[in-house]
Amino acid sequence: MINNFEFLIPTKIIFGKGTEKTVGEQIEPFGKNVLIHFGGNFVKDTGLLQSVTKSLEENNIHYEILDGVLSNPRLSLIRKGIQICREHKIDFILAIGGGSAIDSAKAIGIGTPYDGDVWDFFKGKLPVTETLPVGSILTIPSAGSECSNGTVITNEDGFYKRSVNYEIIRPKFAILNPELSYTLPAYQTACGITDMISHVMENYFTNVERVDLVDKLCEATIKTVIKNAAIVMRDPNDYEARAQIMWSANFAHAGMLSTGRVGDWGSHNIEHELSAQYDIAHGAGLAILFPAWMKYVYKHDMDRFVQFAVQVWDVDFYSYLTKEEIIFEGIKRMTRFFKDLGMPVTLEDAGIDESHFTLMAKKCVEDGPVGNFVKLDYEDVLAIYKIAAMSPQDKAN
Fold this sequence. Notes:
Blueprint: E1 12-15, H1 23-27, E2 33-38, H2 42-45, H3 48-58, E3 62-66, H4 75-87, E4 92-97, H5 99-111, H6 119-122, E5 134-138, E6 150-155, E7 160-165, E8 173-176, H7 186-204, H8 212-234, H9 239-253, H10 266-278, H11 282-297, H12 302-313, H13 323-341, H14 357-364, H15 378-388, H16 392-395
Parallel strand pairs: 1-8, 2-3, 2-4, 4-5, 5-8
Antiparallel strand pairs: 6-7
Helix pairs in contact: 4-5, 7-8, 7-9, 7-11, 8-9, 8-12, 10-11, 10-14, 11-13, 11-15, 12-13, 14-15
């Protein structure tokens, strides 16, 4: 039975060609002192930073710049950003990039007005009740953070990767110009595609019954990404395919696909320990761990896994004798899709051995079991890491 829910997405979406040139107009209502926050040289080398600063100057907005965001954004840089915001009386934080830059900006936003250490929020010591407003210019469609209520950061002290989720931290606006993703390396594009599909799957695998509409929305979103992934990997400058993928990434994690149901999110928690320990790209870690999770939990609700295989991966229901055969064929096709994108599909592919399995499993469940579709404790998580070390053929047989 569909659950009661409230649904509100206050983030303004500005979608299309050239929309980044309006950023000054979008920020102007929120103040006159801005922190521009981003990662590598792409923002500078492509002229995007120049375009952004010109728009800010035309709207009489002063700005400070903090670059250096890494994949799996670091607590140390966030603390530096908080100090800059306080010293320069920053009114607004503009993130340019993908999920890492936006998550880092959100963490800076909640840490600036707080007297203590921002990590307190990620340890669950207190709720988030105040934040600097954040906006974004998206260049890497992937995490959906440009519209979501969450942020995930990594504490280098102990390699802990933790999240905070509160409605107050949703960005005020998100500028989505698919042209800005043209020059993404193929591997980064593939990581983003894997991440957005994984977000949909986390919502898809639910114990709530008769959620037909959102089931179909989930299936359609994944199939849209699958179709257009093949196009952008062949032709990175195909605007229509880039647009479909950029919008799908946003749709996957903005909240619509979680309405009336309880998603799982166990695979994300298990992957967070992997990327915290080894600094592997989040999407790559999910390509390895999601099939392993499926292999471990599929008996909990075989009908849902059959539905996933048939509706998403086009497995012919009548060509197989048993539900297990259908499920394993779905897993096989999904794994092949990830591999064709250039993703690692085993821990060995990523150069990761078993030396930290025990540590990662312990850290994953130190605050209690993870996942909602199936509750996973230490032994469960450890078993999933071990499955992830197997070959794709072993995982689907």
